[in-house]
Write a structure and sequence with these properties.
This protein has 638 residues and is of the alpha+beta class. Helices cover 40% and strands 25% of the residues. It has 17 helices and 26 strands. The strands form seven sheets. Strands 1, 2, 3, 4, 11 and 12 form a six-stranded mixed beta sheet that branches. It has a four-stranded mixed beta sheet with strand order 15-14-13-18, with helices on both faces. Strands 20-19-22-23 form a four-stranded antiparallel beta sheet. A hairpin with a 2-residue loop joins β2 and β3. Bound molecules: adenosine-5'-diphosphate and magnesium ion (MG). The site of magnesium ion has 5 residues, from loops.
Length: 638
């Protein structure tokens, strides 16, 4: 029965409906990488990476803003040395990041302190990382449209498992800007696992070791009932193939005796950007060659009669870079330890290790990983392409090309936030959108009124601030709360979504232990398009929602203060002089009036006025209660 819900939740096309080949939708998977990006699709049921007209599969993730417009890929990269400020590399590092974050990365660009996300000052004016990424995506979209002879119906784009909400949203925005219909964002390690068909394989724990150009990511996934859950991530955001290149350059300079010389002209020549670039790209070539042959030679012609030409063995190269490999192992061990913690005593039986990223072609990396895990790592698929291939498989299924009862779609994240309605019709998010499944989160709530014995729990789904604008998933009541002053009860509400996407919500009052619970199916009946719509309306309305939220908050605060004041007047009103009483009554009237309006600032002012106007009264009440307590004590001690 649980499984049935899952199918209903995720199956896009009707059972038994077989799309005729001419009606097949065009779906693509995109690996939007830090160094390189790729696009893949399914042809004749087989995934393949789409190449450009020159036969290149990899598109360097480089964008240059030049006089004649925007260049993307190889041609942009070739200009990086001469035009560094207008040639943006590794823009992925800036996605969803603020100015301060970007400054820390010490990049060669002129950064603009824009609100929200950082911007880069280029010849084309200030551009945001979203726009830069959109250029890369647009190039890939065009490549795909050419190859598939038509418009693309949908795309799955991969992101690192550790990407937070801002980074994911920035990626979605970039895709939209590039004219792509995003079916889903998929975690890179999950995509790699899907490419190897592990989603239909044995349940258990999988490691994905991804060493790219500038980043190292290690992810530990757990597969249960066809759904991947990310149980731990780790890595090093500034460790990748580039560091191996740099080692070779440093070595070559030393070897050629250029590093030790005090001959100023030679040193400055080395320091020149073009020479430096030349050395780096030669180092990269040599490094890549050494992955398949035992020897290679560094050869760089400098101006004049200077040149560097030094042979190098793989052994020597491995010795020069062994500490870099060791660093990845360290992060891997740490992630494994985190995964063990997350499993809480359940044994960590690793089913397989998947290798991703161009740098895992280096034999020493493969050997080190094999030794660490005691498993032969998966290297059957091209490590550059494996993420794009997994994304293409996923896109094909999501767009509705795949049918049949067991063609389940993998849903490893929650598409919309899950929340609970609080006073004033506001939504408190308990589980954020994109959280990976399964997941459990608890939050503590309390009563609003003195002596309140029941609490209504309204479970909603969506990104909006108001419960009325979200989708209602269910309601239940927690009864039997012992009477207590407002704010004293401790009600823990727990949301739990299992691997099938089934949500259960429970509420428990901590001091008395009274409990209530319901089970609901969160996205049941929601189409992907509806989810997109709800998301878009959530973002578009964010500002009006914020205003609305402030208003409701102030109204709730007004009500709370009015109630409390009334109670106080009822008990200790005799402490007040007639004048004081008239003044407080006037302040209460004013607050009652303003709270009915829609000016949150005015309500706030009236709240503050009443709070200030009752300060002395509060002090008098406190004195009285202390007095009472002291009297009581005296009696009992007699
Ligand atoms: P990213 O995921 O960061 O976009 P990639 O997975 O495309 O990066 O990896 C790019 C890196 O892989 C570069 O540093 C490149 O030099 C390296 N690389 C590609 N092929 C080889 C090879 N045969 N041997 C060693 N390194 C390689
Ligand atoms: Mg990558």
């Amino acid at each position: 029965m649980i499984k049935k819900n899952f199918v209903a939740l995720l199956q896009i096309s009707e059972p038994g409906e077989t799309p005729d080949p001419h009606q097949r939708k065009r779906a693509i998977g995109i690996d939007l990488g830090t160094t390189n990006s790729l696009v893949a699709t399914l042809r004749h049921a087989l995934p393949e990476v789409i190449e450009d007209h020159l036969g290149h599969a990899l598109l360097p993730s480089v964008v240059r803003f030049s006089q004649d417009g925007v260049q993307v890929g190889q041609e942009a990269m070739e200009q990086a040395a001469v035009d560094p400020k207008n040639t943006i590399v590794s823009v992925k590092r800036l996605m969803g990041r603020g100015f301060a974050d970007a400054l820390e990365q010490s990049l060669p660009y002129d950064l603009v302190d824009a609100p929200g996300m950082v911007q880069l000052s280029t010849r084309a004016g200030p551009v945001s990382p979203i726009q830069v990424s959109a250029e890369i995506l647009r190039k890939l979209r065009e490549r795909a449209e050419l190859a598939l002879a038509g418009d693309i119906d949908g795309a799955v784009i991969t992101v690192p498992a550790y990407f937070d909400d801002a980074q994911r949203q920035a990626t979605r925005d970039a895709a939209q800007l590039a004219g792509l219909n995003v079916l889903r964002l998929l975690n890179e390690p999950t995509a790699a696992a899907v490419a190897y068909g592990l989603d239909t394989g044995a349940e258990g724990v999988y490691a994905v070791y991804d060493l790219g150009g500038g980043t190292f990511d290690i992810s530990i996934l757990r597969l249960s009932r066809g759904v991947f859950e990310v149980i731990a991530t780790g890595g090093d955001s500034s460790l990748g193939g580039d560091d191996f290149d740099l080692r070779l350059v440093e070595w070559a300079i030393r070897e050629a005796g250029l590093g030790d010389t005090i001959d100023g002209s030679r040193l400055s020549e080395i320091a020149q950007a073009t020479t430096w670039r030349q050395l780096l790209s030669e180092a990269r070539r040599v490094k890549e060659a050494l992955s398949s042959q035992p020897m290679a030679s560094m050869h760089v012609v400098l101006s004049g009669d200077n040149e560097i030409k030094i042979p190098l063995t793989r052994e020597r190269f491995e010795a020069l870079t062994s500490d870099l490999v060791e660093k990845t192992l360290l992060a891997t061990r740490r992630a494994l330890a985190d995964a063990r913690d997350a499993l809480q005593g359940e044994p960590l039986n690793l089913e397989a290790v998947v290798m991703v990223g161009g740098s895992t072609r280096m034999p020493q990396v493969r050997q080190a990983v094999k030794a660490l895990f005691g498993l032969e790592p998966f290297i059957g698929l091209d490590p550059d392409k494996v993420v794009a291939i997994g994304a293409a498989l996923q896109a094909d299924a999501l767009v509705g090309n795949k049918t049949g009862s067991d063609d389940w779609l993998l849903l490893d994240v929650i598409p919309l936030s899950l929340g609970v309605e609080t006073m004033g019709g506001l939504v408190e998010k308990v589980i954020a959108r994109n959280a990976t499944l399964p997941i459990a989160r608890a939050q503590e709530f309390t009563t609003f009124k003195d002596g309140q014995t029941a609490l209504a729990v309204h479970v909603v789904q969506g990104e909006r601030e108001l419960a009325s604008e979200c989708r209602s998933l269910g309601r239940f009541e927690l009864r039997g709360i012992p009477p207590m002053p407002a704010g004293a009860a401790r009600i823990v509400i727990t949301y739990q979504v299992d691997a099938d996407g089934l949500l259960s919500v429970s509420a428990c009052e901590q001091t008395s232990g009274v409990k209530a619970a319901i089970t609901v199916k969160p996205a049941y009946g929601l189409e992907d398009s509806q989810i997109t719509e709800m998301l878009q309306s959530g973002f578009a309305k964010a500002e009006t929602d914020m205003l609305e939220r402030r208003l409701r908050e102030q109204q709730v605060e007004a009500q709370r203060l009015l109630d409390a004041t009334r109670v106080a007047l009822h008990h200790d009103g005799d402490l007040l002089s007639t004048d004081d009483r008239t003044q407080i009554d006037a302040l209460m009237d004013r607050l009652t009036q303003t709270a009915q309006g829609s000016d949150h600032q005015a309500i706030r002012a009236a709240v503050e006025a009443l709070a200030a106007g009752t300060e002395t009264f509060a002090m008098q009440r406190m004195n009285r209660s202390i007095q009472r307590a002291l009297n009581g004590q005296q009696i009992s001690s007699l």
